[in-house]
Amino acid sequence: MDTSPSAALPEPLRRSTKPRWDKAVLVVALITGLLGAVLTLVSSHLSATRQSPPDFPSENTSRPDPNTSHPDPSSVSPPASVPTDQTSPSTAVGETPDPPPSGAQVPVATAEDKPEPLPEYPKLHPENTLTALNPEKTLFAEIATVDGKKKVVRVGLVCEVCLREGPLEVFLCKKGTKEHEAIVRVDADAQFIHAALEAAGARAGKPTQFVNPTTEQAEYKPASGDKITVLVHYRHRGQIRTHPAQEWIWDRNKKMILPFDWVFAGSVTIVDPDNGRKFYGANSGDIISISNFPYSMLEIPVEISKDDANLIYEARTERIPPLWSKVWVILQPAAATGPAR
Fold this sequence. Notes:
The protein has one domain. The protein is 9% helix and 26% strand. It is built from four helices and 19 strands. The relative contact order is 0.22.
């Protein structure tokens, strides 16, 4: 009996080796979004043009798209500097945030709130540039000059809030996939996000292993890869806030925020054996996961089953802006000094 991870795939899909990013097709893959500087930086990381996904089954029950009732405010003009009204410093992952100082007001979302527009992107340095990497202008590279050379230092995603209460299995999903169990969604191809992270110097590992490929026996092995810091930057009731994404994920048992970091697992490429068509696994919805999934691009290197996630983790409603608010999700590779928490 085949108990390998690929056996869990619905027929006729099977799992292949990890994607490689090839110079030859970069210009086609990124279409019109890249400027000349980014072409040099990212050109070694994309391996294939955008491909139509095969008939990939999903368990999602997506929420209705609100675009017909709310205009999309996501047109982005790169700012000249970091906003000056930022009010919230980052809280250490795994710590319960300290109460605000006396007289300070912390935004608390209510059902009556309207969607918030996208704030300016918070550059690490005013001289850095922000460059769109896809036609939808939902994927950006923050580029700095280091020793006279251009370098991608962070990746910015224009996302929107799609869930504010209930159990979670995913933090960030692709639009039209797992909005029923993810806090934010993005209209972007996950393989391009993968390429942008590699351009920023991040090294992909592997998603969670459930079966030993040699013995074909059940064997858990945590996700691997470089640690990635995930920040959210958003506007709420006149304030602009920036903090780790973990602050939106609540452990109902321990009464604390999510205490783990994400690693760059890198997902897998799935190949349809009938027609050879390829599909980047994270495009099924698992771009930044909380539960262990075999297709995750970013994953927590701790054993958290789907059932465990549903029982333990939930959206921290009072801290999340209204549904369909625009939010920056910022990905910053961290130098590996040891195992991520």
